[in-house]
Structures are given as C-alpha cells and as structure tokens.
Amino acid sequence: MRLSSLFLLIATLCAAAPATGATLYITNTKSDSASIVDTDTLEVVGTIQLGQGKPNRIVFHPDGKAAWVVYDKSHDLGVIDAESKKLVRRVQIGGNPYNLAFTPDGRHLLVLDWSSDTSNDEVIFYDLKEQKIDGRVEVSTWPAHAIFSRDGKLVYVSGETAGDVTVIDVAQRKVVGRIVHGGGDAMGLALPADGKTLYAAAGENKTIVKIDTTTNKTVGEIPVPGIVHEATLTLDGKYLYTTLRKTNKIAVVSVSDEKVVKVISQKGYPDLVTMEPTGRYALVTNRYADLVGVIDLSTQAQVRTIPVGKAPHGMALRPR
C-alpha cells in the first residue's frame, strides 16, 4: 500500500470511530467558577467564571448544549453555553432552589425548591420553550435529589430532612406515592437499568433503602458504616458507590449480595459521585480538599486526585 493511501485509510478510520470521552463540569462553590475535566485524560482543561452567588448544583440539558447551575446564596439559576464555555444568563425560578433535573424529553426543567418567604417545599415545572412555570407540586421538607422512572412517567424526589421519597406523576403533576424511611440527611437516589428497584440513601439511618417501583413500598435495607449521603450505581449496575461525608469515606456495596465490599478513604468530605462514561472510574467531589478523587472501578482503589477550584460540589457530564 502506498504511504499516501495508508494515511488516507487511517484518517478515514479515525473519523468513523465514535467519540467515547466526555467533559465533566464541576462547580466550585467558593471560587464562583466551574472546572472542566476531560474524562479521557483526567485533567482540567478549562475554567468558567460563574459570578457571585455561591454556585452549587449543575445539570446538563439532555441535548448537551447548555448546563444549568443553582446559586445557593443569590437563590437564582445560571445558564452556561457549552460551546462558548461561558455563562450567558441568570434566571429567577422559585424562592430557594436547591437542585435541578430535566424531563427526559428536554421540554421541562424541574426545580427542587426549598421553603422560603415566596415559595413552599415543592417541585417547580418550568417550560423551557415558553420560559414560564406551568406546574408546582408540593413535597415534604427540603427536596434534594430527583430521578426519573425509565419510561419518564414518574419522578422520584428525596426529602432531605423528612427522610422520605415522594413519587410524582409527571403528566398529571401530582403526588402518587410517598415512602417514609425516617433517615434525616437523606439525599441520593439510584435506579438500575431495569427500573425495578429504587435505591435511596437514608442518611442518618446508615442504610440504603430498597424500594419496589411497582408497589412504591420498601422491600429491604442495606446497612452501611456511616451517615450516607450519595448513592450512585456503576454503569454495569453491579455496585453502589455511597459517600459517607462525615467520616471521609466511600462505601462500595455489592448489589448482588447487598454487602459492603470495600471502604475507600477520601481527603475531605466526599459529596457526589459520577461514573466516567466508559466505565473505568468513579469521580468524587471532595468539598473540603478542593479536589476530585478518581477511583479505579476494576480495583476499587483511588488512583489519583484532580485539583479543581475551592469547595467543589456539583458535577455534570457533557458527552462529546
């Protein structure tokens, strides 16, 4: 084969190969910024200035074009254009927003709003095209995390101080179930691919609660060695990575036998866990250490850390 033909073949194959990497956006609550990490190289490749207001949670729209940010202190939202990597606007939705979620079809933004002078503890449905609120659903105190059923018809919302999970019918905008486990500081939710069992972090109960999604009833509990904040499934659904913030540890739970199989030390207050999109690593924000921990999922050991801004908390993946 002639050299020029070989180069042409290589170029063609590279162009046809699917891009598997992604970028991870991390909000730094005390730096008023977002760090961008390349999940292939595990290096910071950019920083976005977000302005004052204590940026915290961050969520990407399903089309990957924009990321929305919650500001804890100024109680508004920011919109990042992912192509220009710039904050393009601030939006006021709700009185005291804490977290966000997008409906799977991308039409609505759900704002998990904490009680304030102008709002109740509720989930606000915001129509992105019309740029207006078109539904509110009251829930228990401090709605924290939200996750959709696999068909997108229901959304499950954890109540941080109430120690419960509220089930909302998305189309009807009404509560259709509530599961009370009583564990304060309850946050994380995880749903496997088959959608049959919802895993809910029950905080101060030091357990992961198993909820049957067909009956909305608790069917079991998995003990963990500490107050549990986040619960994130590996991409193969075999393990739950749970953050024990107050003891600076990650507890790894085997889903098949419902036992803790590994405890991994962290530098400083591990908050949230995101799975790297090829299934190699778990990425963990360490809020008091100003870094992201990188855990090799094959060995269940931390292999490196990524320095970011001050007090990293929220994380959102943007596919390439």
**Number of separate helices:** 1
The computed structural class is mainly beta
The N- and C-terminal alpha carbons lie at a distance of 33 Å
What is the beta-strand fraction? over 45%
User: What gyration radius follows from the Cα positions, in whole Å?
Assistant: 20 Å
Biggest beta sheet summary: 4 strands, antiparallel
Summarize the structure.
With about 325 residues, the protein is mostly beta strands.
Q: Could you please describe the fold and organization of this structure?
A:
This protein has one helix and 28 strands. It has 320 residues and is mainly β. A hairpin with a 5-residue loop joins β17 (197-201) and β18 (207-212). A four-stranded antiparallel beta sheet has the order 3-2-1-28, with no helix packed on it. It has a four-stranded antiparallel beta sheet with strand order 4-5-6-7, with no helix packed on it. The chain is globular and about 50 Å long. Helix content is 4%, strand content 52%.
Task: Reconstruct the topology from this structure.
Layout (H helix, E strand, L loop, with lengths): L2 H14 L5 E7 L4 E6 L4 E7 L5 E6 L5 E6 L5 E5 L4 E6 L5 E6 L5 E6 L8 E6 L4 E7 L4 E6 L5 E6 L4 E6 L4 E7 L8 E2 L6 E5 L5 E6 L4 E7 L7 E3 L5 E6 L4 E6 L4 E7 L4 E6 L5 E6 L4 E6 L4 E7 L4 E8 L1
Antiparallel strand pairs: 1-2, 1-28, 2-3, 4-5, 5-6, 6-7, 8-9, 9-10, 10-11, 12-13, 13-14, 14-15, 16-17, 17-18, 18-19, 20-21, 21-22, 22-23, 24-25, 25-26, 26-27
Write out key terms for the chains shown:
single chain, 320 residues, mainly beta, four-stranded antiparallel β-sheet, 1 helix, 28 strands, 4% helix, globular, disordered N terminus
